[in-house]
Specification:
- The chain is α+β, with helices and mostly antiparallel strands.
- The chain has one domain: Hotdog Thioesterase (Thiol Ester Dehydrase, Chain A), CATH 3.10.129.
- It is 20% helix and 41% strand.
- Strand 2 and strand 3 form a beta hairpin.
- The protein has a 7-stranded antiparallel sheet with strand order 1-2-3-5-6-7-4.
């Protein structure tokens, strides 16, 4: 590809995300994925709303999105871009979350925020993938982690 040619980045709306991932409400943590570059990187988007069930108890009068759900959204973003790259047509894989490293929470995420989960592949070997992930709200880092997962063909999981 020469310098003049621009690389076309993919995106996945909510319907495509639901084709890629087995998660459903209330555990589907991303609304769409933009700027997908093969299995190298992508940006998951989550619109945080007050009607999400975890806000009833976390915390009444001071709603804060649980950090573990931010990490789950990072993992869902990474898993979806891997599956999208591997299975354009055909049976999707399952993604099993394996590790969380270097995790830090920097600022609370509250209803009304839009979180953008920037994930970038560090490496992959066979069926194991490792990503660095950063969650941003209005361009400010709210959380970060390195995550790894294993992709397994859905027939092999049974």
């Amino acid at each position: 590809m020469n310098e003049v040619e621009a690389k076309t980045l993919e995106s996945a709306d909510i319907m495509r995300v639901m084709e890629l991932l087995p998660h459903r409400y209330p555990f589907l943590m991303i609304d769409r994925i933009v700027d997908i570059d093969g299995d190298n990187s992508g940006v998951g988007v989550k619109n945080v709303t007050i009607n999400e069930p975890h806000f009833q108890g976390h915390f009444p009068g001071q709603p804060v999105m649980p950090g573990v759900l931010l990490i789950e959204a990072m993992a869902q973003t990474a898993g979806a871009i891997c599956i999208n790259a591997r299975h354009k047509n055909g049976a999707p894989s399952l993604v099993y979350f394996m590790t969380i490293d270097k995790c830090k929470f920097r600022k609370p995420v509250v209803p009304g925020d839009q979180v953008r989960f920037h994930v970038k592949k560090i490496r992959n070997r066979a069926t194991i993938w490792k990503f660095e992930a950063v969650a941003l709200v209005d361009g400010r880092k709210v959380a970060e982690a390195e995550i790894s997962a294993m992709l397994v063909d859905s027939d092999a999981a049974n």
